[in-house]
Amino acid sequence: MATVTKRGNSYRIKVSCGYDVNGKQVVQTKTWKPEPNMTARQIKKELDRQCVMFEEECKMGQVVATIKFEKFAEQWFEEYAVINLRHTSYERMRQLTQRVYPAIGHLRLDKITSRHIQQFVNDLIINGENQRTGKPLSRKTVVHHLSFISDVFSYAMKMDMLSDNPCRRVTVPKCEVKEKDIYTIEEISHIFELLDGDDVPIKFRVFFKLAVYSGYRRGELLGLEWKDVDFENNIINVRRTSNYTADKGIYTDTTKTKKSQRSQKYPQHVMDMLKELKLEQNAERTRLADKWIETDRLFIKWDGRPMHNNTPYFWFTEFCEKNNVRFCDIHSLRHLHASLLINAGVDVVAVSGDLGHSQVSTTSNIYCHMFQEAQARASNAIAEALSFDNKKQGTEQTQLPA
């Protein structure tokens, strides 16, 4: 916004045009002098018009944000991300820079266009590979890259360094949507039988069965503490998550969203399973004595410390291979839980609350296909229940005039 200073018979109009590479504000000025015969009202009106015109001129040809994208992105990490983002989100953003910086990091903020970013996005879709598996990047991963770039530009706008975010005009091409890979009831029944085997450690038996019964995220399961379990009322409370990053190791964090903090009631046999796990932990605590490290966690290492986030995944991979069982990742158990609720006719609002989603729209978007199938079955059920009407209509066909 322009500022005006009266200097004798003239007016100085000053407009901020962003910041240079050193973070110093760039300001452009213009002097306007009214005609001698203009009234005070005319001067004010024309001065306002001159201010608007000068602001537009500055926007068209201003020396804004001459700082390179990579350098400013690092400032964004320091000034905004480290303070406002969850540590896991911060680390994910850091990983995204491995592709973003080589592509546009060397360009000035004010020189980056929507076309630059669109070309980068298209290249990720066509040529991008997962650095660990070598498989093509998912559309979700490409969206994460675009979101990171957009966040940096939005921060530049917030700091009055730019007047536009070029990411607004970028489109992520639609990819083929793959059906969620989840277990069937027959498969999960077989897995439950195998989990009841004598050679299966009770902590893994409880972890994977509870994952299906609860639909909790992996971090929510690993973050459970015994004080969260109400054995008297058969209720489990989700209050935190357990996460891992290379720099911090295993650490406790808040839940993904506020609505992720929830309380749910479970059948008695699930609570009995937890009691069995509790008894085993008490016995190990006594046996190890001063070697035991008290954390109150349900899922732990041999000495009581929190279980590593990757441990359930690696254990389940070996378990499936050993028993010749199809492997679906741990998050698929959450999808299985949701599908069981939907197939049972539970409405989207209740499913959303059960899964701890922040918005109902999140649930409906993720499980849209499942809800559509459930709705179709409901319509068929009504048609079958009213089949007598179809038979009646069949015997009373309307005769058309000859």
Compact description:
Helix content is 51%, strand content 11%. It is built from 15 helices and eight strands.
Q: Could you characterize what this model shows?
A:
The protein has 402 residues and is mostly helical. The chain has 3 domains: 3-61, no CATH class; 69-169, DNA polymerase, domain 1; 189-327, Intergrase catalytic core (hpI Integrase, Chain A), CATH 1.10.443. 51% of the residues lie in helices and 11% in strands. It is built from 15 helices and 8 strands. A hairpin with a 2-residue loop joins strand 1 (3-7) and strand 2 (10-19). Helix 2 (69-84) packs antiparallel against helix 3 (87-104). The longest helix has 22 residues, at 40-61. The radius of gyration is 30 Å and the shape is elongated.
CATH architecture of the largest domain: Orthogonal Bundle
Please, how many helices?
A: 15
Mean pLDDT score: 87
**Residue share in helices?**
40-55%
Integer-rounded radius of gyration: 30 Å
CATH topology of the largest domain, by name, is hpI Integrase, Chain A
Strand content: 5-15%
Summarize the main sheet. Answer: 3 strands, antiparallel
Oligomer: single chain
Helices and strands, in order, run as: EEEHHHHHHHHEEEEEHHHHHHH
Strand order of the largest sheet: 1-2-3
- Count of domain modules: 3
Runs in which pLDDT lies below 50 for 5 or more consecutive residues are none
Termini Cα gap? 80 Å
Considering the protein shown, what is the CATH homologous superfamily of the largest domain?
Intergrase catalytic core
| CATH class descriptor of the largest domain | Mainly Alpha
